[in-house]
Design goal:
This protein is mostly beta strands. It is built from 2 helices and 33 strands. The longest helix has 16 residues, at 2-17. The N and C termini lie far apart (51 Å).
């Protein structure tokens, strides 16, 4: 009964207050909460012919608070329909937050498994709980929650750092992988198994981090793809390696082979998933044709958020969903196919170096550039005087750089160096660099030969132009802007 009251309270607040949100920087084809704060994607699942995506949600303010689960659904992962709040803190085991988790379909019912969070002074308890729905909209918490708690991890992990269950089925057995922390503050992933989603037992430590791999791992997801087993997760304070892991909180893909007898992952390769400034807590689901789709929170912890600073009553967005593949032991991303139907591409005169009044708040830009050994060039996007987002490439180092230094409101975090740009190594394919830019009001996502960089930015003055700058003659084989 208390849960129903809290859900009704949240939904009434949203209905009454969402109209007061300032829409200046709101994205149009990315999922956003109607009002308030959003972070991690949760419960990403295909159910009864539609994708459902839940998310960490605090409707009452544009800063993080006691976590609820927001909820939306979509047929194409581009156009979203908001649904009522699915979970709210209400019980002794989750009174301070319904933290991240996942979803699975069983007997045509939708099961959510999430972390119940309690925090009182120095005391913190994180346990795994169930909520069940017949219609995929209204959820009842399981009467014997929590289903995974202290007894399951005795002498294995600390109940204070034990969260973000990702559930999946293999054969007749259900598994959930849960993030935890070692006694000396290293990340680890724990695997549990069940025959019915209710009665769980500990199986194994799937993987355990080294000191340089972060003090805690969050938001795990384990799946089989293209002949490989893939574990993705989000480490906190992972040490920088060349151009990787510059954000305080990062995202990583471990690729290898899972031994299901021992429950251990043999890791063959690992790498950062997205090289932008705003990408965290990715989660995947399997689509109706077996495709593996991924979405993440397009923001970053421990940074100011201009929409909160400006009193716009919201903060946070999801990324553009992507389809995943594994090639040469690396995770490759391609934009969800439905996004291309949103844009009407217009070919451009690729011999020009300046395009005035062409930038739109929702836009797709596609450029295929021939690369020689001395090539250096920059696309200054959304240019207005000295302000622009800058996308640069240096052939000698094969380095793609995206910078928001000269555009919009400052976004500062706790990193030792104020981050305004990120770099990503991109090797040309057949002597060409294939760049796709997806802009949606306050976000820019860059796809380059299967790799991605995600950024937010908040213009003070709208930029309208695109300038192409190059140190040597530039051959652009293809250049299109959507109108």
């Amino acid at each position: 009964m208390l849960h129903k009251i809290e859900i009704e309270k949240a939904n009434e607040f949203i209905e009454q207050k969402a109209k007061d949100v300032n829409k200046r920087y709101r994205n149009k084809y990315h999922l956003m909460a109607p009002i308030g704060w959003m972070n991690d994607p949760n419960g990403f699942v295909y159910f009864q012919g539609e994708y459902h995506l839940f998310y960490q949600y605090y409707p009452y303010d544009s800063i993080w608070g006691p976590m609820h689960w927001g909820h939306a659904k979509s047929k194409d992962l581009v156009n979203w329909e908001h649904l009522p709040v699915a979970l709210a803190p209400s019980e002794e085991y989750d009174k301070d937050g319904c933290f991240s988790g996942s979803a699975i379909v069983k007997d045509d019912q939708l099961y959510l498994i999430y972390t119940g969070h309690v925090e009182e002074g120095d005391y913190r308890r994180e346990v795994q709980c169930l909520a069940i729905s017949e219609d995929g909209i209204h959820f009842e918490k399981y009467h014997q929650n929590p289903v995974i708690a202290e007894a399951h991890i005795h002498n294995i992990a600390d109940i204070a750092e034990f969260r973000d269950p990702k559930v999946f089925q293999r054969g007749e057995t259900y598994y959930t992988i849960v993030a935890a922390q070692t006694a000396d503050q290293r990340g680890q992933m724990l695997l549990f198994e069940s025959a019915n989603l209710v009665d769980w037992k500990f199986k194994s430590v799937v993987a355990e981090g080294e000191k340089h791999q972060g003090i805690m791992w969050e938001c795990p997801d384990l799946f089989h793809l293209d002949g490989k087993d893939v574990l993705i997760f989000s480490p906190i304070q992972m040490a920088k390696q060349d151009n990787s892991y510059w954000n305080t909180s990062s995202t990583v893909a471990f690729i290898g082979e899972m031994d299901w007898e021992t429950g251990k992952l043999a890791i063959e390769n690992y790498h950062e998933i997205d090289y932008g400034l705003d990408f965290y807590a990715p989660q995947t689901c399997e689509g109706p044709n077996g495709e593996r789709m991924m979405v993440a929170w397009m923001q970053m912890w421990n940074r100011n958020m201009p929409t909160n600073d400006l009193g716009h009553l919201w903060a946070g967005s999801m990324t553009l969903p992507c389809e995943l593949h594994v090639e040469d032991n690396r995770l490759i991303q391609t934009p969800v196919k439905g996004i291309y139907r949103q844009f009407n591409e217009q070919p451009q005169d690729s011999s020009k170096n300046y395009f005035a009044n062409v930038v739109k708040e929702q836009q797709y830009v596609h450029a295929v550039v021939e690369i020689n050994e001395e090539q250096e060039f920059t696309f200054a996007y959304a240019k207005n005087g000295d302000e622009a987002l800058k996308i640069s490439y240096q052939a000698a180092t094969e380095m793609l750089t995206v910078s928001r230094e000269t555009i919009g409101y400052p976004i500062k975090g706790i990193e030792e160096t104020h981050l305004v740009e990120r770099k990503m190594r991109v090797s040309p394919v057949d002597g060409q660099l294939d760049l796709e830019l997806f802009r949606d009001t306050s976000s820019l996502e860059v796809f380059a030969n299967g790799q991605t960089m995600s950024f937010t930015f908040f213009e003070k003055v709208k930029g309208t132009d695109i300038a192409v700058e190059s140190t040597t003659p530039l051959t652009i084989k293809l250049l299109t802007f959507s109108q």
